[in-house]
Write a structure and sequence with these properties.
Layout: H1 2-32, H2 39-58, H3 62-86, H4 96-118, E1 134-137, E2 140-143, H5 144-166, H6 168-178, H7 180-185, H8 190-212, H9 222-237, H10 242-262, H11 270-281
Length: 292
């Protein structure tokens, strides 16, 4: 029982990191219909930035840590704004193959930029004092930082739901998706709305990177590993669905956590087996809607 509980909590913690990343990926696709492979590279950029500037903020106590969690994603969001205004605006109406080629090229470019700035060494972010150590549950210890991530995930999901469903900006986004010409006729700058949505998606990628920097070592190649898992999440949950992204992230996180116990050599294959089963049964995902 103690092993089951610890693995479950570990899987949920992993799932929350995946949700933070996948929610941005799902937001960009749901609004702009762009499949952004470079999302994982922005996540890696956020992780390296957190590992670099985090030490400067941790001396300020809890407030410094939360300031770092805000500043790093904002920097990543600014990078995303530059990408959106210079490149992505040109491909919104293009076929998905061109989108994939562009975003894959950006993945290679950002990877080289990270290598030039930080080199190939692994880096770590020292956890703040108030999140160090662990607490005892069922006779075993679970990291306090993992519990922190478990709390952040649902709060973020609630905040995104409120933003998109209970605010004026959220109503504008939904209207711009449904009928951009009508929204533009009402005097709303649709391009600016799209830029804001893209920036929010990149902010979430940077936040996911900043959070994971406190859990594991940061190094080159982490973008490729995480983006594949994130795509599995959004496919399982349903492209463009926030609820689906949360459900898919929790399922994939739990599958990865228990898969290591059941099949250590092939645990990484299990999420894709789950994705294949979902695609066979519900090609639009567990909480997605079929295209009409």
């Amino acid at each position: 029982m103690d092993t089951f509980v610890i693995q479950l909590l570990g899987g949920l913690s992993k799932g929350m990191i995946l949700f933070v990343l996948a929610s941005g990926l799902s937001l960009i696709f749901g609004v702009m219909r762009v499949i952004n492979f470079a999302h994982g590279s922005l996540y890696m950029l956020g992780a390296f930035l957190a590992a670099t500037v985090g030490a400067q903020f941790l001396g300020m106590g809890p407030s410094g840590f939360f300031l770092m969690l805000l500043l790093v994603p904002l920097i990543v969001a600014l990078v995303g704004i530059v990408m959106e205004t210079t490149l992505f605006r040109r491909i919104y109406t293009k076929e998905h193959l061109l989108q994939l080629l562009l975003t894959y090229g950006l993945t290679l470019l950002l990877s080289d930029v990270v290598r030039m700035i930080w080199g190939g060494e692994y880096r770590t972010l020292r956890q703040p004092d108030f999140l160090r150590g662990g607490f005892e549950i069922v006779g075993r210890k679970f990291p306090i930082y993992g519990l922190f991530v478990l709390i952040i995930g649902p709060l973020l999901a609630l905040g995104l739901w409120y933003l998109l469903n209970r605010t004026r900006w959220g109503r504008i986004i939904r209207a711009a998706v449904a009928n951009p010409d009508m929204v533009s006729a009402l005097g709303i700058n649709v391009r600016l709305v799209m830029t804001g949505v893209f920036a929010l998606g990149c902010f979430l990628a940077g936040l996911g990177g900043a959070l994971v920097a406190g859990q594991s070592a940061v190094g080159l190649g982490m973008d490729v590993n995480i983006i594949v898992e994130a795509f599995a999440v959004v496919v399982v949950g349903g492209l463009g669905s926030f609820g689906g992204a949360l459900l898919g992230a929790l399922l994939i996180g739990i599958i990865l956590s228990f898969g290591i116990l059941v099949w250590p050599g092939g645990a990484q294959l299990l999420p894709f087996a789950a994705m294949a089963l979902v695609l066979i049964a519900r090609p639009w995902g567990l909480l997605g809607r079929p295209e009409r």
